[in-house]
Amino acid sequence: MGLVSETRSLRVRGGWHDRRVLLTITTTARPATDLGRLLRKHPDRVQSFEQTFGTAWVCYPEAGEERCTAALLLEVDAARLARSHARASGDATLKQYVNDRPYAASSLLAVALGKVFSTARTGVSEERPELAAAAMPLEIALPAVPCTGGPRLVRDLFEPLGWEVQAEAVPLPGFDADSRHVSVRLRGEVRLSDALSHLYVLLPVLDDAKHYWVDIGEVDKLVRSGGEWLAAHPLRGLIAGRYLAHRKSYERAAFARLEEVAEAVESDADIAEDADTAEQSLPLHRIRIGAVMDALAASGAASVLDLGCGSGKLLAALLDDPRYTRITGADVSSRALGMAERALRLDRMGERQRQRLQLIQGSVVYRDKRFAGFDAAVLMEVIEHLDPGRLPAMERVVFGDARPRTVIVTTPNAEFNARYGLGAHEMRHADHRFEWERDRFAAWAEGVAARYGYRVRIEGVGTVDPEAGSPTQMGVFDRD
Questions:
Q1: Residues in domain Methyltransferase type (predicted)?
Q2: Which of 241, 261, 251, 213 is nearest to 423 (CA)?
Q3: What is the pTM of this model?
């Protein structure tokens, strides 16, 4: 019996016995069929998705108003996977053909989950934004997970994320002499997008193996997918090490990224009450936003343009300050704007507050009349994402055409990278095109100021190291 017909028959029986069912996601939120809306997979259809190593299938063994279950099946082509592995590693032994990959939720399932549910992982739904943003009762079942660390590690990884965890060692017939495989069941009130990101990151961590080539791009995947929860996780060192195949340079880059993008969620209780230690207790992104807000307040600006606004952290601070009557966030990425819209809760924002804020899609290297007419513009951790050859275009757009009274630019200080354990030529972010030492940034800033009729002062942001300076450098440009 083929996989599709086999899946349909199992659905009619209401039970799951096929060895390729590696993941089920169940909700009892009413109407439970909203799960299909969030996953963007219709409950009445069996859908297939080709992968480089086989085929993934999504179907629903049950789909009612009170309970709905989505199942992800994986049909691994052992020969195709072995050929791919042999090309990458030079290993063409029999174990590449005979292994547990078709029967266990390994890194291959994480890859399939990431692609099949890519839209759901973003946490954005144009059709039902309030549904995507809300936690819902979820139960996740993984019949067989290869786990180096056993049931205890499963609990240590998932319980800090708010899950109730059931995990027990189970033999996988024909493969398991030492019960390396674990049956896992997770229950909790969690946003679906968060649940998918937990699985996407932690399945390869449990397995402690990735079955594809690991390069520096995996750092970006880890930080982007882990987001807020990863930086705050008590086992983030183990998670980063296993996810990045124990490559120390990648681990250091990941830790620097976590500090730089500052996705950690920290409570006020985590901040020391002693004013002398408060700065050390704050993550760098909070210190950076504070420095930008201080510079804006000193400028007397009432209207602010946040260029490269990302997920909207600076916009949130601006909205909290009534002195700013006109606030615009611009970003080239529609995905980033969607994240900002969700983070700022535009759909729930009061009318008066909403009138102060505008989100627009635009690029700092192309002239845009919407950028004109602001008292101040901010480029916070933006310029380093541009190719150096594009900097003159950005200068013309911001300093020449938009020409606000004040421009604030922040960027990493490359001299401080050694304090993060990075090598001489390593950068904090896989997408950075350059990172400047202090004298290079000063020379650029002074040149821009002279060419466009501004004065500039340069400040360090963050804890000062006697030799390396501060982790962030900031230029505040005021027009003559």
A1: 305-393
A2: 251
A3: 0.55
